[in-house]
Amino acid sequence: MSRWTIFAAFLALALFVAPPSFAQTARPFDLAQLTPEVRASVEAARAAQTRALMAAARSQADGPGHIRFTGTGGDTYNGECNPCGVDSPQRHGVGLLSWPDGEIYAGEHMRGGSGGFKHGHGVYTFMNGNVFEGEYNRDQYSGYGVFWTADGQLADQGRFVNGELVR
Q: How far apart are CA 137 and CA 161, in angstroms?
C-alpha cells in the first residue's frame, strides 16, 4: 500500500468521524452563540425539561401529586398536578404535555384555565422538528428564549412579550 493510499484512507476516516461542527460555524444547539440573558433562560428551560421528564416517569406509578390524563383536544399530560382529582385535574409543577400531531412540551406548568398553562421555563418541540427553549407566561412565549431549526441551527433569539419577539 502506497503512502498516498494510506494518507487518503486516513483523511477519509477523519472526515467520516469528524463532528458536524467541522463544516459548520457553530455546533447544533450551541449555547455559545446566545446572548447571556437568553443563555441563562435556555439553561433553566433545559433543567425544567429534565425535571419534567422525571416527573412524567413518576406519574406512571399514580403516586400522590402526580397524574396522567388526556385533555379534551386529545393532548396528554404526565406530571405534577394540584389539584389532582379525576374530575378536574390541573397541570401544576413540572410535566410532559404532548399532542396527537407529535408536538411536545416538557417544562413548568401553572394551574388555571381548563387544565393548566405552560408557565415558567420549558422546551417545546414542534411537529416539524423546530424547537423553542425559554420562558412562558400563561401559554405564551414571555421572557427570554430561542428558536432553533430542526437541524439545531439558531433561527431567532431574544426577549418575548405576549408571545411576540421584541426587537
A: 9
Confidence (pLDDT) at 19: 47
21: in domain:
no
What number of other Cβ atoms are within 10 A of residue 133's Cβ?
A: 28
pLDDT at 38 over 80: yes
Q: To which H or E segment does residue 40 belong?
A: helix 36-59
Q: Parallel, antiparallel, or unpaired: how do β-strands 76-81 and 140-148 relate?
A: unpaired
Tell me, what CATH number does 162's domain have? 2.20.110
State the average pLDDT over residues 32-37: 96
What nine digits make up the cell of 93? 409543577
Q: How far is CA 143 from the centre of its chain?
A: 15
DSSP 92-158: EEEEEEE-TTS-EEEEEEE--TTT-EEEEEEEEE-TTS-EEEEEEETTEEEEEEEEE-TTS-EEEEE
How many domains are there within the chain? Answer: 1
CA distances from 105 to 22, 30, 44, 64, 167 (A): 31, 20, 14, 22, 25
Residue 46 within a domain? yes
Show the domain range for 111: 34-166
CA distance 2 to 22: 28
- Residue from 136, 157, 158, 135 nearest 147 by CA: 157
